[in-house]
Amino acid sequence: MARDKLDRIVGLAIGAVAMALGCSESADDSPSQGRGGRGGNGAMGGFGGSGGAAGSAANGGTGAAGGSTATGGTAGASASGGSAGGGGSDGSAGSSGAAGSDGSGGASGAGGSDGSGGASGAGGSDGTGGSSGTGGSGGTTCAPPSPGSSGRNPLFTDQYTADPAPMVHGCTFYIACGHDEGNTGFVLREWFVLSSTDMVNWTKRVGMHFNTFSWANANAWAGQMVHKDSKFYWYQPVNQRGSGMAIGVAVADSPEGPFTDAIGAPLVDDALEMENWNFDDPGRTPFTIDPTVFVDDDGQAYLHYGGFGRMVVARLNGDMVSIDGRLSEVTPRGFFEAPFLTKRNGRYYEIYAAGVNPAAIDYATSDSPMGPWTYGGRILDPLPNVPGQDAATSHPGIAEFAGQWYLVYHLSNGPNGGGTYRREVAVDKLNFNSDGSIQKVTPSSGLRF
Ligand code: FUB
Q1: How much is the pTM?
Q2: Which of 160, 188, 235, 289 gets mutated to test ligand 1 (max ligand atoms within 8 A of its CB)?
Q3: Nearest CA residue ID for atom 3, ligand 1
Q4: Which domains does the chain have, with CATH numbers?
Q5: Rounded to 5 degrees, what are φ and ψ at 400?
Q6: Residues 6-52: tens digit of each pLDDT
């Protein structure tokens, strides 16, 4: 069955991934700072995105709006007593809420900050003043890294880390990644969660093992964790026992876990793909690896995945653990594997490993999360080979934190031995041009602030 496809891929023996598969040592391996806060009484902090609407209770504002990346929450507009406005914006205090409509005075809204919820709205100013706000959904105003501080690349040298995917939640920058334990082939059995609140000091802990999925028996490859509705979903490619690579999803109440299998079966596997495309040969299906999930401003989530030059796109249902409709192949130019989907200023960005290994990092954009994609350019050149090592795979993700975008990727030629199967996660700043294009990144020895 799907093993045929794996064998076929191995047979191709192109690129380091194919080679790696062929010599596997073991049978066992709103980016935009979250969602916009809701208006009204919400006590939960928003984590960026668009500002939530302010409360608009008749008797006064009921709280500040959600935090936003760029814009404060909107003002209250109740007939009596405007509500507080002003979500915390990205890196700056939330703006004041404008006066409520109808002349009855809006309150000033304090900015949400640090996820602690918007401050109370003051009373309306016109007799019918609004009562105190009950705490808006907080904006996330995260402190930027300290000026003069510096980090180091790779982030860790005590263990090998690979396939990073960033997630900013609250004021913590998380990186979900794999744990390379191989030498002459891929051996990945567990995933790490790396985290930092200052981009300089990082912690590393095991987040999950592939055996969280009872139906899996190997290959804890490149996954991504996302947040939606107070749950954390970790989409992971693993080897499905008796079959080939498949994508599972685990869920937890915290990025720290504990994670449990959300379905008890794969979300996507060869069987689903064959049914989707009416294939009778699993060898015709796309390579079911490297899931990326993006939750859009309206709550709609999208799953992309794929490898060996074929990228699949699909909508997820609201439960985050089932596919809405059909899978489609909509592959950006040059795509090889490792897609990462995000959004900035209304434009969708697909960042991905491009070209047969050694891979570069390229990107494409679209006005739809389902594509089609317009090639954007190169972000990261293939890492230079080092004698005795190689730099085969590349694996990217990008996220914004405290007003700065970052590229996470892995080195294969790090200072710790390196090589295709001993990779090390690194972070560098990523900058956009005014037209939305992405500037190239030069790998550094560490972040400087
Ligand atoms: O780590 C195993 C595979 O290597 C990943 O799934 C790919 O993205 C490549 O990095």
Answers
A1: 0.75
A2: 289
A3: 221
A4: 3-430 (2.115.10.20)
A5: -100, 135
A6: 443 433 333 334 333 333 443 333 222 222 222 222 222 222 223 23
